[in-house]
Amino acid sequence: MVVLHYTEMPLDAALARMCDPEAQVSAHYCITEGGEVIRLVPEDRRAWHAGASYWRGIPDVNSASIGIELDHPGHALGYRAFAEAQIDALIPLLARIVKTYDIPRANVVGHSDVAPMRKVDPGELFPWERLARHKLCLPRPDCLAAGNPFHNWGSFFLALERFGYDITDQAKAVEAFERRWRPERITGVPDGEIAAILWQLLLDRDQGRTR
Question: Does residue 117 register a pLDDT over 80?
Fold first, then answer.
Protein backbone atom coordinates (compact mmCIF):
# COMPACT_ATOMS: atom_id res chain seq x y z
CA MET A 1 0.00 0.00 0.00
CA VAL A 2 0.85 3.67 -0.28
CA VAL A 3 -0.79 6.13 2.10
CA LEU A 4 -0.80 9.84 1.26
CA HIS A 5 -0.91 12.46 4.01
CA TYR A 6 -0.54 16.17 4.58
CA THR A 7 1.65 17.58 7.35
CA GLU A 8 -0.73 20.29 8.66
CA MET A 9 2.20 22.19 10.16
CA PRO A 10 5.14 24.26 8.91
CA LEU A 11 7.74 22.20 7.06
CA ASP A 12 10.58 22.64 9.57
CA ALA A 13 8.32 21.63 12.44
CA ALA A 14 6.99 18.63 10.52
CA LEU A 15 10.48 17.37 9.66
CA ALA A 16 11.65 17.86 13.25
CA ARG A 17 8.67 15.93 14.56
CA MET A 18 9.12 13.06 12.12
CA CYS A 19 12.80 12.81 13.06
CA ASP A 20 12.16 12.90 16.82
CA PRO A 21 12.20 9.35 18.26
CA GLU A 22 10.05 10.44 21.20
CA ALA A 23 7.27 11.63 18.89
CA GLN A 24 6.86 8.14 17.44
CA VAL A 25 5.69 9.68 14.16
CA SER A 26 7.47 9.16 10.85
CA ALA A 27 6.99 8.68 7.13
CA HIS A 28 9.11 7.28 4.36
CA TYR A 29 9.02 10.51 2.36
CA CYS A 30 8.09 14.16 2.68
CA ILE A 31 7.57 16.30 -0.41
CA THR A 32 7.85 20.06 -0.04
CA GLU A 33 5.54 22.50 -1.78
CA GLY A 34 8.49 23.39 -3.99
CA GLY A 35 8.80 19.78 -5.14
CA GLU A 36 11.80 18.59 -3.12
CA VAL A 37 11.54 14.91 -2.17
CA ILE A 38 13.05 14.17 1.24
CA ARG A 39 13.58 10.54 2.23
CA LEU A 40 13.15 10.01 5.95
CA VAL A 41 12.86 6.23 6.35
CA PRO A 42 14.18 3.49 4.04
CA GLU A 43 11.38 1.75 2.18
CA ASP A 44 12.23 -1.63 3.67
CA ARG A 45 11.68 -0.27 7.19
CA ARG A 46 8.45 0.40 9.01
CA ALA A 47 7.42 4.02 9.38
CA TRP A 48 4.86 5.26 11.90
CA HIS A 49 2.61 7.32 9.65
CA ALA A 50 -0.84 5.73 9.63
CA GLY A 51 -1.49 5.24 13.35
CA ALA A 52 -4.58 3.27 14.28
CA SER A 53 -5.79 2.27 10.83
CA TYR A 54 -7.45 -0.36 8.68
CA TRP A 55 -7.72 -1.16 4.99
CA ARG A 56 -9.05 -4.24 3.22
CA GLY A 57 -8.57 -6.61 6.11
CA ILE A 58 -5.24 -5.13 7.21
CA PRO A 59 -5.59 -3.85 10.80
CA ASP A 60 -2.00 -2.56 10.97
CA VAL A 61 -1.48 -0.42 7.90
CA ASN A 62 2.01 0.67 8.99
CA SER A 63 3.16 -2.91 8.55
CA ALA A 64 2.12 -3.02 4.90
CA SER A 65 2.57 0.48 3.52
CA ILE A 66 4.83 3.29 2.41
CA GLY A 67 3.84 6.68 3.78
CA ILE A 68 4.27 9.93 1.87
CA GLU A 69 3.73 13.24 3.65
CA LEU A 70 2.93 16.34 1.62
CA ASP A 71 4.02 19.69 3.04
CA HIS A 72 0.67 21.47 3.32
CA PRO A 73 -1.18 23.64 5.88
CA GLY A 74 -4.12 21.22 5.96
CA HIS A 75 -7.61 22.05 7.12
CA ALA A 76 -6.40 23.52 10.42
CA LEU A 77 -4.09 26.15 8.92
CA GLY A 78 -5.81 27.24 5.73
CA TYR A 79 -6.78 24.43 3.38
CA ARG A 80 -5.91 25.10 -0.25
CA ALA A 81 -5.07 23.38 -3.51
CA PHE A 82 -1.84 21.40 -3.59
CA ALA A 83 1.15 23.02 -5.31
CA GLU A 84 1.78 21.94 -8.90
CA ALA A 85 5.48 21.38 -8.21
CA GLN A 86 4.58 19.09 -5.33
CA ILE A 87 2.31 16.90 -7.42
CA ASP A 88 4.87 16.95 -10.26
CA ALA A 89 7.36 15.45 -7.79
CA LEU A 90 4.87 13.00 -6.30
CA ILE A 91 3.92 11.36 -9.60
CA PRO A 92 7.33 9.88 -10.54
CA LEU A 93 8.03 8.87 -6.94
CA LEU A 94 4.69 7.12 -6.68
CA ALA A 95 5.09 5.53 -10.12
CA ARG A 96 8.41 4.02 -9.11
CA ILE A 97 7.05 2.74 -5.77
CA VAL A 98 3.94 1.22 -7.36
CA LYS A 99 6.02 -0.55 -10.00
CA THR A 100 8.69 -1.76 -7.56
CA TYR A 101 6.24 -3.33 -5.12
CA ASP A 102 3.46 -4.20 -7.59
CA ILE A 103 0.95 -2.15 -5.62
CA PRO A 104 -2.64 -2.29 -6.91
CA ARG A 105 -4.16 1.06 -7.80
CA ALA A 106 -6.90 0.41 -5.26
CA ASN A 107 -4.24 0.38 -2.53
CA VAL A 108 -3.00 3.90 -3.20
CA VAL A 109 -5.12 5.70 -0.62
CA GLY A 110 -5.39 8.73 1.60
CA HIS A 111 -4.94 8.80 5.36
CA SER A 112 -8.68 9.44 5.69
CA ASP A 113 -9.41 6.20 3.84
CA VAL A 114 -7.52 4.08 6.37
CA ALA A 115 -8.41 6.12 9.49
CA PRO A 116 -11.83 7.68 8.79
CA MET A 117 -12.66 8.26 12.44
CA ARG A 118 -9.54 10.36 13.04
CA LYS A 119 -8.25 11.85 9.81
CA VAL A 120 -9.38 13.91 6.81
CA ASP A 121 -6.10 14.23 4.91
CA PRO A 122 -5.11 14.73 2.18
CA GLY A 123 -8.64 16.04 1.78
CA GLU A 124 -11.13 16.97 -0.86
CA LEU A 125 -8.77 19.17 -2.91
CA PHE A 126 -6.19 16.47 -3.47
CA PRO A 127 -5.93 15.81 -7.26
CA TRP A 128 -6.72 12.09 -7.34
CA GLU A 129 -7.85 12.32 -10.96
CA ARG A 130 -4.42 13.54 -12.01
CA LEU A 131 -2.84 10.47 -10.42
CA ALA A 132 -5.51 8.31 -12.02
CA ARG A 133 -4.55 9.58 -15.49
CA HIS A 134 -1.10 8.12 -14.83
CA LYS A 135 -2.72 4.86 -13.65
CA LEU A 136 -1.42 5.40 -10.12
CA CYS A 137 -4.78 5.16 -8.38
CA LEU A 138 -8.32 4.23 -9.30
CA PRO A 139 -10.30 6.85 -11.22
CA ARG A 140 -13.73 7.98 -10.17
CA PRO A 141 -16.22 5.76 -12.01
CA ASP A 142 -17.93 7.57 -14.88
CA CYS A 143 -20.38 4.78 -15.70
CA LEU A 144 -23.16 4.68 -13.11
CA ALA A 145 -25.82 3.08 -15.26
CA ALA A 146 -26.62 0.49 -12.60
CA GLY A 147 -27.81 3.24 -10.27
CA ASN A 148 -28.29 2.32 -6.63
CA PRO A 149 -28.55 -1.48 -6.41
CA PHE A 150 -28.69 -1.69 -2.60
CA HIS A 151 -32.03 -2.69 -1.11
CA ASN A 152 -31.21 -1.00 2.19
CA TRP A 153 -28.40 0.98 3.79
CA GLY A 154 -27.27 -2.03 5.80
CA SER A 155 -26.24 -3.74 2.58
CA PHE A 156 -24.55 -0.51 1.46
CA PHE A 157 -22.37 -0.48 4.58
CA LEU A 158 -21.47 -4.13 4.16
CA ALA A 159 -20.36 -3.30 0.62
CA LEU A 160 -18.39 -0.30 1.87
CA GLU A 161 -16.58 -2.60 4.30
CA ARG A 162 -16.00 -5.10 1.51
CA PHE A 163 -14.38 -2.39 -0.58
CA GLY A 164 -11.94 -1.69 2.25
CA TYR A 165 -13.25 0.84 4.75
CA ASP A 166 -13.56 0.55 8.50
CA ILE A 167 -17.29 1.15 9.09
CA THR A 168 -17.19 1.26 12.90
CA ASP A 169 -18.36 4.89 12.69
CA GLN A 170 -20.72 4.80 9.74
CA ALA A 171 -21.00 8.57 9.25
CA LYS A 172 -17.22 9.02 9.29
CA ALA A 173 -16.82 6.11 6.86
CA VAL A 174 -19.27 7.76 4.47
CA GLU A 175 -17.44 11.10 4.81
CA ALA A 176 -14.14 9.41 3.97
CA PHE A 177 -15.69 7.71 0.95
CA GLU A 178 -17.20 10.99 -0.24
CA ARG A 179 -13.95 12.86 0.34
CA ARG A 180 -12.22 10.43 -2.00
CA TRP A 181 -14.94 9.68 -4.56
CA ARG A 182 -17.30 12.69 -4.45
CA PRO A 183 -15.26 15.54 -2.97
CA GLU A 184 -17.61 18.25 -4.20
CA ARG A 185 -20.27 17.22 -1.65
CA ILE A 186 -19.45 15.69 1.72
CA THR A 187 -22.42 14.98 3.98
CA GLY A 188 -21.68 11.83 5.96
CA VAL A 189 -25.09 10.51 4.90
CA PRO A 190 -25.34 7.78 2.25
CA ASP A 191 -27.37 8.59 -0.84
CA GLY A 192 -28.09 7.14 -4.26
CA GLU A 193 -25.10 8.75 -5.96
CA ILE A 194 -22.42 7.43 -3.65
CA ALA A 195 -24.19 4.05 -3.58
CA ALA A 196 -23.93 3.95 -7.38
CA ILE A 197 -20.25 4.93 -7.23
CA LEU A 198 -19.48 2.22 -4.67
CA TRP A 199 -21.36 -0.39 -6.67
CA GLN A 200 -19.43 0.46 -9.84
CA LEU A 201 -16.10 0.35 -8.00
CA LEU A 202 -16.90 -3.13 -6.70
CA LEU A 203 -18.24 -4.28 -10.05
CA ASP A 204 -15.14 -3.08 -11.88
CA ARG A 205 -12.90 -4.81 -9.36
CA ASP A 206 -14.79 -8.10 -9.32
CA GLN A 207 -14.91 -8.23 -13.12
CA GLY A 208 -11.18 -7.62 -13.41
CA ARG A 209 -11.36 -4.16 -14.98
CA THR A 210 -9.36 -2.57 -12.17
CA ARG A 211 -6.64 -3.67 -9.83
Answer: yes
Q: Which residues contact 108 (CB under 8 A, 6 or more apart)?
A: 1, 2, 4, 94, 98, 131, 136, 137, 138
HEC profile of the chain:
CEEEEECCCCHHHHHHHHCCHHHCCCCCEEECCCCCEEECCCCCCCCCCCCCCCECCECCHHHHCEEEEECCCCCCCCCCCCCHHHHHHHHHHHHHHHHHHCCCHHHEEEHHHHCCCCCCCCCCCCCHHHHHHCCCCCCCCCCCCCCCCCCCHHHHHHHHHHHCCCCCCHHHHHHHHHHHHCCCCCCCCCCHHHHHHHHHHHHHHHCCCCC
Positions marked active-site? 69
Q: Tens of pLDDT along 5-42? A: 999 999 999 999 999 999 999 999 999 999 999 999 99
CA 132 – CA 36 distance, rounded (Å): 22
